[in-house]
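Hypothesis: this fold can be encoded by more than one sequence.
Test: take the structure tokens below, design a sequence, compare later.
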């Protein structure tokens, strides 16, 4: 904690505290996003304020600027950063300002002027001590060969920042973690089977499990997929088409290791961990494909056709999609497989396939397995596991389905990457995969999570957020929330996240879902400054706390409808 003492009655001290606090928050961002945040601060200054009766006073650069009397109307006029040409045009409208000039963000006074718009003490929140984040690495210790430029991203970054404000993941207390991408894991969901509290450990469970997993669990997975998705298909999965992996990331890492010499396309926005995974691997060329906000980031098949035309050899995507909460229709999924069959490896992340609400919450689910013609010829790899659908994220038992040749390669990769999954829990999981048991479990899950989705949408609607059929998630347990209508710093994901921390609420800023593994994108032109991802995975009482916290923020800023 800081040794500095701040007085709640000293406005200048509060302003300085605000500057220091936000600078520390900004300093923890990964390099590409840190540059993005600096561009954001630049854009704050360069975005024209609304016309308001004013007097003028010089800013730190000596340029006359309006002094407005209502902070909600102008001092907090923060929107998404403008593209460079728009910023240059605005410079041309400032007397005495060179259009090519760049504000000096190292100038303390200038930075204070900018960051005060993202400050901690505005709109009625009292001052409090600033938790000082520890550096990612101790510079005083010599650490040969360690990559000290590696930064935390996504959910981990959000929870690390929350920890600096008092959040403890093991004792959450009054916090509402709406950032974590995990479902509630208790036994309180009506109709859900109770998870085992104790397991037997015969002596043979002490052995290493095969890197492809134990045969019994591989057979159970194959039988479930055959029953649920391939009842009328001649080609069936066998245990040889299943590889058990210690978590979804481990499965993706194995896949990334066995493919090479191709263009791998992926869509934006998508699961944050894809970025680090793709950046680590040098055996293929990643090609980002941005989706359009006007379509609520829907993955149109025309985009895939274009990617195939320019030589795409592999496609990685989540379906249902993280973070938007939507998925391809059955017709679209069928057409996707027809287009890519024998041309392109489909890597389908289906961890949310059972969180599907469009068919009456009957326990039905959507999967690529239904649209594969030959399980050993169609180049399709499907990832899923106990993590989401069975609400057992801590077990780290997941699987990859695919042609035997791919599965053999994945098994070999496991021998040098991760060593395989936990042996005892694999044996316990076999019983979970009984088809009728799964269907009953999924019906209970869908009814419960749809109720929670409707709850937070109802609360947010009353606060003034707009929802239509298009931006209402029909799957997953995520809400891709547009902030652009909010005033000032709240319209920006980093400012909104900052305010949420003070209300003990965690969300994930939208710009983390830019998969930018080679840092090639110009971040200041990315529009996801106006989005945050909210998870309705936690228990209902945590959602209530989270919605209460967001409501308090909007009330303080005078924008609660």
């Amino acid at each position: 904690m800081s040794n500095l003492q701040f007085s709640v009655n000293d406005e200048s001290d509060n302003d300085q505290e605000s500057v220091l606090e936000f600078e520390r928050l900004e300093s923890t961002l990964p390099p590409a996003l840190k540059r993005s945040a600096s561009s954001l601060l630049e854009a704050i200054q360069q975005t024209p304020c609304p016309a308001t009766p004013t007097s003028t006073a010089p800013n730190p650069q000596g340029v006359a600027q309006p002094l407005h009397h209502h902070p909600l109307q102008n001092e907090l006029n923060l929107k998404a950063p403008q593209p460079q040409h728009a910023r240059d045009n605005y410079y041309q409208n400032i007397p005495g300002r060179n259009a090519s000039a760049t504000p000096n963000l190292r100038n303390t006074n200038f930075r204070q002027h900018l960051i005060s718009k993202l400050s901690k003490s505005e709109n009625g929140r009292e001052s409090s001590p600033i938790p000082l984040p520890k550096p990612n690495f101790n510079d005083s210790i010599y650490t040969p060969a360690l990559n000290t430029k590696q930064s935390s991203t996504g959910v981990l970054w959000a929870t690390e920042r929350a920890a600096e404000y008092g959040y403890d993941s093991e004792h959450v207390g009054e916090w509402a973690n709406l950032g974590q991408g995990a479902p509630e894991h208790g036994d309180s969901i009506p109709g859900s089977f109770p998870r085992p509290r104790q397991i037997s450990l015969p002596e043979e469970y002490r052995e290493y499990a095969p890197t492809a997993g134990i045969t019994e669990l591989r057979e159970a997975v194959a039988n479930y997929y055959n029953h649920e998705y391939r009842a009328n298909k001649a080609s069936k999965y066998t245990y040889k088409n299943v590889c058990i992996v210690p978590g979804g990331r481990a499965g993706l890492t194995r896949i990334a290791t066995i493919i090479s010499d191709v263009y791998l396309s992926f869509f934006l926005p998508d699961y944050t961990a894809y970025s680090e995974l793709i950046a680590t691997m040098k055996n293929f060329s990643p090609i980002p494909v941005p989706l359009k906000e006007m379509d609520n980031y829907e993955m149109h098949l025309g985009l895939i056709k274009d990617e195939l035309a320019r030589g795409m050899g592999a496609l990685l995507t989540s379906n249902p999609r993280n973070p938007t909460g939507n998925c391809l229709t059955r017709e679209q999924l069928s057409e996707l497989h027809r287009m890519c069959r024998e041309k392109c490896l489909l890597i389908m992340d289906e961890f949310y396939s059972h969180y599907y609400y469009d068919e009456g919450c009957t326990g039905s689910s959507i999967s690529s397995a239904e649209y594969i013609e030959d399980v050993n010829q169609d180049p399709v790899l499907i990832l899923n596991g106990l993590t989401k659908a069975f609400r057992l994220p801590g077990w780290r038992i997941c699987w990859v389905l695919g042609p035997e040749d791919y599965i053999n390669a994945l098994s070999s990769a496991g021998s040098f990457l991760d060593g395989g999954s936990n042996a005892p829990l694999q044996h316990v999981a076999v019983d979970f995969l009984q088809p009728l048991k799964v269907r009953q479990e999924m019906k209970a899950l869908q009814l419960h999570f749809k109720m929670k989705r409707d709850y937070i949408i109802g609360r947010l609607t009353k606060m003034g957020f707009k929802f239509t059929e298009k931006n209402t998630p029909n799957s997953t347990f995520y809400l891709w929330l547009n902030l652009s209508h909010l005033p000032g710093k709240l319209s920006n994901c980093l400012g909104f996240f900052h305010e949420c921390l003070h209300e003990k609420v965690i969300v994930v800023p939208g710009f983390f879902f830019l998969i930018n593994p080679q840092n090639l994108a110009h971040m200041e032109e990315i529009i996801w400054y106006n989005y945050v991802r909210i998870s309705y995975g936690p228990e209902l009482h945590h959602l209530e706390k989270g919605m209460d916290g967001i409501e308090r923020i909007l009330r303080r800023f005078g924008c609660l409808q």
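Residues 1-10, 44-105, 126-135, 520-525 have pLDDT under 50 and may be disordered. The chain has two domains: 11-181+483-556, 203-436.
Hypothesis status: open.
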